[in-house]
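Quick illustration, no need to memorize.
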Amino acid sequence: MPLIRQEEVYPAAQYPWAQAVEMVANGAVARYDLVVVNSVAATGSVIPKAAPAAADGALLNAGIIMVATGAAADGEKFLAVPWVVITGVDTSAATAAGYPVYLDISTSAGGWTATKPSGADDAVVPVGTVLVDDATDGVVMLKPGTGALEGFVKVGTATVDSGTGTVAVALGANFAGARVVVTWSEDPGVVADVYATVDGSGNMTIGTNATLGADKTVTYVARSGAL
């Protein structure tokens, strides 16, 4: 049997081929798609199936996320790796090298974006780093890791109406039954408690137990349950 010396083992460059995993496409997969492992190829099989991942709340399924090294039609085999360096892409939204890129919210799924998702129903999942900031010759290292989420966090401000003493905020479906902390600074001479409730559809109501002399801006931090 041949002897392999340490100096003959070269480090990975663009792809870590020694860590490649054979998978079956659960839906069409494109090269460099971020894919999430979500089943196995058949009963008793050890070959995982993976589908293109997305950060949109209606599509999100957290789990082990890897990068496809080639395209595959639904049901075809492909190789996925834990990281890859891609070139010739638009990274101008990142502003500078060293900025993160995120799992995209696109309904076509599988993509990444240099713009941080900000929708009420979107997950913020870092999946890599910008190495070169450029509109046409950008370079990104994708390393999505597990993609595991303990829950979404949303921070914002809202104005409580002086007439009703309440304000409604649509946080999004992923925040159904969320835990919320609300803070404000009281006006001189006005002593009031502020509260917040979230219903089963992710709609938050912020209110007070006293009449306000003017509209009041509050700051809230909402955290969803684990995914």
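Residues 1-148 form one domain.
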